[in-house]
Amino acid sequence: MSLGRRAFIRLIPLGLAAALAGGSWWFFREVAREPVKTSQATVTSTSEESAATTSSVFDFPVTWNGDGPTHVNIEDYRLRVDGDVSKPLQLTVVDLYAMSSVQRTLRIECVLGWAADVPWDGIPLPDLLRLAGASEKVASVTIESVTGYKITMNSDEVANPDNMIALKAGGLPLTVEHGYPARLVAPTRSGLDWVKYVHRITCASR
Fold first, then answer.
1. Has residue 19 got a pLDDT over 60?
2. Angle ∠(168,166,183) on CA atoms, nearest 5
3. Backbone angles phi, psi at 11, to 5 degrees
4. What is the CA radius of gyration of the chain?
């Protein structure tokens, strides 16, 4: 399903408002995928425009803010966990999938007015930092995309066990649009901060 010209034009003011509020230019697009079971996710909308961009209940919309879409070279890909850690990590995709993971249904909310409750599979961020030997005095953690887009979380946020590096959504590996092979899931933050294509996590002490 694609947006008609009229619907697209009606989206422009929302996109401009979000851009001005966040200091960045946004673009918004629908993800075209085969529908999956409707029980796997629930998408809700607060506007007719965002409802029009959802082709199925699992195909939740995608917003990009300098971090996509990107095809990652999986052979060269490494997720690095470094900075103030005693055991820096360089994890391949195979390494990540071999690690102990959890599944949690967590809500992603976008400033454009849609939200989705999605079952995510991934590695809790606190577990990943412990594995790397992160200092107990870590003041902040910076999570960076292969595109260079990044966000910084404070120590309280980092300790939240619901923050994870997700590998799957709805039981399926992430699509390119959703940040394959790994993306941040941070339910206390806007979807703007859910960094896709994560390749580096850097710890900094107080």
1. no
2. 110
3. -80, -25
4. 17
Q: Is 81 a residue whose pLDDT tops 90?
A: yes
Considering only CA atoms, which of 69, 79, 83 is closest in space to residue 198?
Answer: 79
Q: At the topology level of CATH, where does 5-205 sit?
A: Sulfite Oxidase; Chain A, domain 2 (3.90.420)
Strands (E), the chain: 27-29, 42-45, 62-64, 79-83, 89-91, 102-109, 114-124, 138-145, 150-154, 164-169, 172-173, 183-185, 198-205
Q: How many Cβ atoms from other residues are within 10 Å of residue 167's Cβ? A: 21
Picking from 81, 99, 205, the residue whose alpha carbon sits closest to that of residue 143 is 81
Neighbouring residues of 169: CB distance < 8 A, sequence distance ≥ 6 = 41, 58, 118, 119, 120, 121, 178
Domain boundaries, the chain: 5-205
Q: Summarize pLDDT for 143-174 with one digit per residue, the tens.
A: 999 999 999 999 999 999 999 999 999 899 99
Q: Give SS3 for 77.
A: coil
Q: How far is CA 123 from CA 20, 92, 128, 157, in A?
A: 33, 14, 7, 16
Using CA atoms, how far apart are residues 102 and 96, in angstroms rounded to an integer?
12
Distance CA 170, CA 102 (A): 12
From start to end of 14-113, where are the E strands?
Answer: 27-29, 42-45, 62-64, 79-83, 89-91, 102-109
CA 142/CA 83 separation, integer angstroms = 10
List, for residues 179-197, the tens digit of each pLDDT value: 999 999 999 998 889 999 9
Name the more confident of 57 and 60: 60
